[in-house]
Amino acid sequence: MEVETINESSEGVIVPEPVVVTIEPEKEYRFQPKDESGRKIGGEQVIKYRTQDELVQKLTEQNINIHRALREQTKKQRLGIVDAESIPEEAPKFNLPLDFSPRQLTPDERVKLSRDLLDPEMSEEATNTLFEAALGRKPQVLMKEFSSLSADVLSLRAKIESDAFMEGTPDYYPCRENFDAITGWMVKNDLAPVRQNFGLAFDTLKELGIMIGAPAETLAPVVPLEMEEVIHEEPIVEVPVREKIPEAVIPTVPVAPRVTPPPTGLKGNDTVPLAPKPKYTLADINKMSGEDYKKRLLHEKGFPEIVEKLEQEAVQKARQRMVR
């Protein structure tokens, strides 16, 4: 940045002289407020400045604002000023416990009640007033509170009974479908939410095939001890439709190199036909997913026969190795 300054030369002519002013690069000062236990309070504070004087000025302004906020809070606390919270009107309010505080009627109130009880038009109001004086609650309010209390007790009891049922029934698989089925069946038959009825609903719906069981775990095939050194264990692949049959490992036997006979000129003697390569191996079938295996089993012609043949061959080879 250049700033022109006015200088007067020896001849009396004013000549502007450019002055170069260096602008400091912008810097950042960061700090994280913490409490006495070293835990973070709020977010990280960042102050941007160019010179040391600017940093001091901004820190001073921040400190002044903090003192002002503390002074305002202290003032509100001393004067009992409370900031209104923005709480939705539909938010449930806390209900105080039931407090039965009867009050004594004055002689005039007793005389008036005795007359109103005999008046058909005033008897209902007089009865409510007498009830409120005896129990400290209006009949309508007391009925509403007892209904809410009864619903809470029933819900808590149902939770305790259902937990006891699930703890004593290892066959039950907890999921939304099973819960809806059991509770729907109990509500339809007007049964109380107790452990005995939970078990009755589970047994009934289980016999009907409505209950959902836990996901089945795929286990590795059991190999006899005599075959452990012969059978090659293929990698376990989850196949929900069938269990994999391990493919027998055939020991490698050195084979003499095949010598092609010289051509004789006869038709069909120049080349020796090779045996057709099998379409699938047992390893290929074991690597198939459950969905792929099911699709081939239903739609591919000859696939079931190939699978059966490969499995029989694997079993025969395993038996031959055991005999040897």
Layout of strands and helices, then pairs:
Layout: E1 2-8, E2 14-20, E3 27-31, E4 45-49, H1 52-79, H2 107-118, H3 123-135, H4 139-168, H5 176-188, H6 195-207, H7 282-287, H8 290-299, H9 303-323
Helix pairs in contact: 2-3, 4-6, 5-6
Low-confidence region ranges:
225-241, 245-256, 264-270
Strand order of the largest sheet: 1-2
Mean pLDDT: 75
Order of helices and strands: EEEEHHHHHHHHH
Helical fraction equals: 40-55%
Number of strands: 4
User: How is the biggest beta sheet arranged?
Assistant: 2 strands, antiparallel
Class from helix and strand fractions: mainly alpha
User: What amount of the residues lies in strands?
Assistant: 5-15%
So what's the overall shape? Answer: flat
Distance between the termini: 98 Å
What is the radius of gyration computed over CA atoms, rounded to a whole number of angstroms? 46 Å
Please give the count of helices.
9
What would you say this structure looks like, in words?
With 324 residues, the protein is mainly α. Among the domains are: 2-79, no CATH class; 235-241 and 280-324, no CATH class. Helix content is 45%, strand content 7%. The protein has 9 helices and 4 strands, in the order ββββααααααααα. A hairpin with a 5-residue loop joins strand 1 and strand 2 (14-20). It is flat.
Summed up:
This protein has helices at 52-79, 107-118, 123-135, 139-168, 176-188, 195-207, 282-287, 290-299, 303-323, and strands at residues 2-8, 14-20, 27-31, 45-49.
Which properties best describe this structure?
single chain; 324 residues; mainly alpha; two-stranded antiparallel ribbon; two-stranded antiparallel sheet; 9 helices
